[in-house]
Amino acid sequence: MHDLDRKLGTLFSDIARFRRILFDQLATEYDLTHVQVFLLNHLHKDDGLTQTDLASRMDIGTVTISGLVDRLEAKGYVERRPDDKDRRAKRVWLTPKMQEVWKKIGESMRQMNEVTFEDVDESDIEHLITTLRKARQNLQVRLNGTGA
Questions:
Q1: 18 φ, ψ (degrees, to nearest 5)
Q2: Burial of 42 by CB count in 10 Å (0-12 exposed, 13-18 middle, 19+ buried)?
Q3: Model pTM?
Q4: What is the pLDDT of residue 124?
Q5: What is the largest distance, in Å, between two alpha-carbon atoms of the chain?
Q6: Do residues 76 and 93 make contact, with C-beta atoms less than 8 angstroms apart?
Q7: pLDDT of residue 108
Q8: HEC states along 47-111?
């Protein structure tokens, strides 16, 4: 099992790192990093989150989120607006400029996946996705304290 542990750890780390590097290369046109796109993806799914919500979903500190939002706001990709229910909170919204760029980011993601899975059968990819979703679920259950 020790050899399996080493192989899996190395594979997961390498794939994640290589994908981040490749995506950063593909996204230079938009002056965005993979972390910024990760934040934007959360807003794309659920626009108008608070910075605290974003920090929680991304599992990073609120100070880090604030810096990311500052940089994205300076580029014109997001804007902060007051929260209707909490005067202290600000919500983060995608701008129309970001909506236009989002399609191009999707193309970069498609290119990255094309490179990642070149010469891999579609059925193998689907099986991998199913397996990784199960692995993610197992880890989430354990981390939430509901697993054995």
A1: -60, -40
A2: middle
A3: 0.76
A4: 97
A5: 54
A6: no
A7: 87
A8: CCEEHHHHHHHHCCCHHHHHHHHHHHHHCCCEEEEECCCCCCCEEEEECHHHHHHHHHHHHHHHH
Q: Are 49 and 57 in contact (CB under 8 A)?
A: yes
Q: How confident is the model at residue 1 (pLDDT cuts 50, 70, 90)?
A: low
SS3 1: coil
pLDDT > 70? residue 146: no
Q: Tokens 């997961």 appear where?
A: 12
Indicate whether 41 pLDDT > 60. yes
3-state SS class at 4: helix
Burial (Cβ within 10 Å: 0-12, 13-18, ≥19) of residue 21: exposed
- pLDDT tens track for 102-143: 888 888 889 999 999 999 999 999 999 999 999 989 998 998
**Distance from C-alpha of 30 to C-alpha of 17, rounded to nearest angstrom:** 20
